[in-house]
Amino acid sequence: MADALVTEAIARFVVGQDPRDPDAIVRRAKVWLRRRQGTTWLVSQALSGVEMALWDAAGKLADRPAYELLGASGEAVPVYASGNFLGQGDPAVHVDHFRPLLDRGVRAVKVRIGARWEEDLATLSGVRAALGPATAIFVDGNEAFTPATALRIAERFAELGVGFFEEPCPRDDRAGLAGLVRSSKVPIAYGEHVFGVAGFRELADDALAGVWQPDAAVCGGMSELRRIAALARERGVTLSPHTAATPLALAANLHAASGAPTLSVLEYSGRLDVFCEAFRGGEAVGTDAVIDGAIRPPRGPGIGVEPLPDIAERYPYRVPPPIVSDPPLYQGSL
Ligand SMILES: [Mg+2]
Predict the structure, then answer these.
(1) Which domain, by its residues, includes 32?
(2) Which of 73, 121, 188, 289 is the most buried (most CB within 10 A)?
(3) How far is the CA of 164 from the centre of ligand 1 (A)?
């Protein structure tokens, strides 16, 4: 679907245009898309990909790294090691997963809490004991909980020194979520499914998050992430960008987030290394490029990381498996 959006809708604003002003191209495309396919969700991801390609082209034409063209600092960005569901193993399994990045000086990690959340809390307690107090721990709820359950979980998180609770519940229950944000002693984080600076302004106006997690490959692009970072400074909100997909998406986020005023840590997938060889320049964002827990944006030109021509053969699109049941929202008591 995303490829049809690019070739049939967005391409008409790109082909034949001067790529040295990506913002102007994206602005025109958005005006046209707004009353047709919209500018959020899949469209936002497709636009983000095109926008990243434009900054890459602009950087190559200027023989400069993208962060320079974006007005970002180019300094190293501290990262956190993104991990697995707590139910996937005992504490040692999680710590082993984080080990390569801990060995590179990373001092923050993230795990995921799921359906068997009471057992997960016991595992989390073991992870905390194994890592010690100097390593920050974040937990992702993947929108699985009601606000009432999320608050009970957040109370335990506060005891375990959890740094933020990511996407505890769906954002459609705005009143419930606002109550959770007010009551939770642990900051609540949202952003990987928030689109554009307008989406983050709504989050701020409704006080629905204390930590923002925009992703340059999702939120509308690298420029959009810069605008969101400026808003985060204005509103006094901590920025902890999301990234999950590829070395290219990570590199784009590094360029855009570098030096952002309220930046804390950028997500770094513990599984990224296996994909680096499918990207020219991928080693610039591999585990070995993490120094003292931080990673520099590639020096370019452009983004400095690009997919090899055979990437579609290496990673062909696969139709997702059939849906067997709708995901529930987990209730319960401790
Ligand atoms: Mg997440």
Answers:
(1) 2-65
(2) 188
(3) 12
**pLDDT for the residue 329:** 83
Region of 38 (left: φ > 0; alpha: ψ -120 to 50; beta: rest) is left
- What is the pTM (predicted TM-score) of this model? 0.96
State yes or no: pLDDT of 45 exceeds 60: yes
pLDDT band at 198 (very low <50, low <70, confident <90, very high): very high
> Does residue 269 sit within a domain?
yes
191 C-alpha to ligand 1 centroid (Å)? 9
Ligand 1 centroid – CA 15 distance (Å): 34
Tell me the CATH number at 19.
Answer: 3.30.390.10
Region 302-306 average pLDDT:
98
Domain check: are 17 and 150 in the same one?
Answer: no
Cα 111 to middle of ligand 1, angstroms = 10
Contact present, 131 and 105 (Cβ < 8 Å)? no
Which pLDDT value is given to residue 332? 60
- Are 197 and 73 in the same domain? yes
Return mean pLDDT, the chain: 95
